Structures are given as structure tokens and as C-alpha cells.
């Protein structure tokens, strides 16, 4: 498995380890990376009540490092005694280059992930209707397509590979770019798909450990593999990621943890206003 496909993606991912066999890769999740990956995965499931008896969960696989880990974590969860739910592994091809599609297929086959890959034309449509900033539109369209596929397969939940760093970057994006405070929730009911819910089991797992695990496997994951955004303006999220890294380097102790905790330590009597169920409340209402 070579790295020559990295140039087709938005951001290079360099693998330095030799390719491991499947048993070694699977064992590493619950042994080598037990503290920082497996235990955080189990904690998120318990703390946020992500899985209930009888659930049928569609695990969305983009082919990137996060979703490949997510799929293997679900397989390990079922192998290690939690069999009160069903799982379907789904992957949407939104218009990948044929070599990218092949990489996705090969990685899933090597990792023994029985994935259902279906085609969509989302990259092409997003490019046409979103102009210079296609990423937001593309994300919405991909989410809707995954919801529809999950529902078609009889699933009631869609598991996505968003991790701890996605959460804290979202917090800062909203503050700095949107002028509001809201976070990426560990689970969320779908607005347009009846009886469907998003869950994010990687919610407590830091990205650097996912990168370490992916490097350890020796497999080359897909990056964003986007045929559209690579030609357009750089992502604001990348700038936010760099901002957090710069703060850590400049002595802001536990800045990532504190950004994360800020969304669970909100003091409503110390904010100017907030919205709940679509209704705005001003601090003067109860002054």
C-alpha cells in the first residue's frame, strides 16, 4: 500500500509504519491503544447513552482514518460481549476518483469491514450550486444522503466519526465566525428523517491518538478525497485547528480540555441571552 494517492486529497497523510496483519490491528485497539481509544469509546457510549437495546446502527465510512477506526471499534464492541444492537456499514461514493474508490474498497476488505458502498453525485452538484465555498453544502448533502440510506436499511441511528478535536474546533468556529455559542452534540435527533438519530462515539477521543493508530496499522486512509474543495479556498476549520495548536504552544494549559468543558459548564445567569426550543430569552427577562 503506497502513499501516491495522498496528492488527490486536501491534506497529506504520511504513513511511516509497515503494514500490520488484521489480528494485530484489531488487538491494538483494545490493548496498545486501550487507554486513549477503546476506553474513551466505551466511556462516550455510557456517558451519553448512545446505544440502546434493539438499535440498528448505520456506521458511516468515508474511508478516512476516523471512520475506519469507528468501524473497527463497533466490530470490537460486538466481539467483546455487547450484542444488544445490529450494525450496518455504509459508504457513499460522492464522486471519488476511481483510484480513491479503489483505495476505499481495498482498505475495507483488508480490515474485514463488510461495507455497503453506494453511488451519489454530490461532488458535482455541490460544485455547481455552491460556487467558491462548497464544503458546507457538500456536508449537508452527504449527511442527508447517509440518513436516507440508513433509513432504507431499517436503521434508527447513524454513527459518524467526529472526534474530540472536531468538537472543540466547532466551539471556536461558532464563537469566532458566527457570533454564537453552541457545540457539536454527542447525539442529535434528525429534523427531516423520522425516528432517526446521529450518534458520535468518537466524541471523547483525541485526534492525535487516531492518527497514531492509523499510522500503526500501516494502511493509507483516504483524506477528504474531495474533487472540488482542493481547487478552492482553504478551510476556516484548518485555521481554527492551527489557532488551538498555537495557544497550546504559548502556554495555555489544558486549552483543549477547557474549550471542551466550556459547553458543559454554562452558567445561564451569567449570559446576556440564550435560545431554547426556538424561543429567545434575554437576561433582563428574569432580572
Could you explain the architecture of this structure?
By secondary structure, the chain is α/β, with parallel strands linked by helices. 44% of the residues lie in helices and 12% in strands. β5 and β6 form a beta hairpin. The radius of gyration is 19 Å and the shape is globular. It starts with 21 loop residues before the first helix and ends in a 5-residue tail after the last strand. The N terminus is likely disordered.
Which stretches of 5+ consecutive residues score pLDDT under 50? Answer: 1-9
Shape from CA axes?
Answer: globular
From the alpha carbons, calculate the radius of gyration and give it in angstroms.
Answer: 19 Å
Can you give the mean pLDDT? 89
Count the strands? 8
Strand content: 5-15%
Q: Alpha-carbon distance between the termini?
A: 64 Å
Write the layout of secondary structure elements.
Elements: H1 22-30, H2 34-47, E1 56-60, H3 65-79, E2 86-93, H4 98-110, E3 115-119, H5 122-130, H6 135-152, E4 157-159, H7 164-178, E5 187-189, E6 197-199, H8 207-217, H9 236-249, H10 255-262, E7 273-276, E8 279-282
Helix pairs in contact: 5-6, 7-9, 7-10
